[in-house]
Amino acid sequence: MKNKLSSRCAWNAITSGRDRFPVENFSHAKKIFSTLCNDSRRLPPNAAEVKRELTDVPVLHTFEALYLQWSEIHAKFPKSKRYSLGTKCDETLLDALASICNAAYHESAGKRPFVESASASLEVAKVLFRTAKAARCLTNDQYVSVQAKLNEIGRMVGGWMKFLK
User: Fold this and answer.
1) Residue pLDDT, tens place only, 59-107
2) Domains observed in the chain
3) CA pair distance 61, 156, nearest whole angstrom
């Protein structure tokens, strides 16, 4: 009986994971891991600049507001158009957003193709929203609000293109 009890205790100790590794190794690994996670000096030199640059792009903030508004509108789209026209509008906005993010991450020489792609996607989005308005999927107020934000983002992207020339 004593053997069975000791084997159960040993089995429980092994499955708990605490006794599997020496305490020194565990605390040492914990200290190294926390140092790696919290020490910003270990980041690559460009990582901090890229991170700061992406958050400093004002067009992303405006685009975020547009996409949040669009997601509410898209949820109320008529079912017959939600998965065709609504999904195409959604994909086009996300393509433009991806192009803007890619432009923010690249250096000056590589930004231009992404900014041009974002501009083209925004023009397609304007046409799609005009079509959605004509198909009575959007109210006048929704259409005016979305178009105003698209125009504002278009002006920002256009200014970015002029800056890169």
Assistant:
1) 998 999 999 999 999 999 999 999 999 999 999 999 999 999 999 888 8
2) 2-42 (no CATH), 45-164 (1.20.1440.60)
3) 11
